[in-house]
Every structure is written in structure tokens, then in C-alpha cells.
Design brief:
Radius of gyration: 14 Å
Number of domains: 1
Number of helices: 1
Shape: rod-shaped
Oligomer: single chain
Largest sheet: none
């Protein structure tokens, strides 16, 4: 996930960004307000 310099690899960064997107879409759905595509 991170190397000796403390930086996150590209693949790990993409996975984290995708997880945030999915959680954002779920939050919109749960709130029943807004469009689920908005976080994209």
C-alpha cells in the first residue's frame, strides 16, 4: 500500500478513490436527496 517514503501506490490510490465514490453514492441514496451520479 505504501512504500518506504510513505507514498501510496497508484493502484492503492485508485482503490481508495473508488471506495469514496461508492460511499458518496450510497450516502445520496440513503438521504433520498440528490442524484447518485453527482459524486462521480
Amino acid at each position: 500500500m505504501s512504500n518506504a517514503s510513505g507514498q501510496v501506490s497508484g493502484q492503492a490510490a485508485r482503490q481508495m478513490a473508488n471506495a469514496i465514490r461508492v460511499l458518496s453514492m450510497d450516502a445520496v441514496e440513503r438521504a433520498k436527496s440528490g442524484h447518485p451520479g453527482m459524486p462521480m
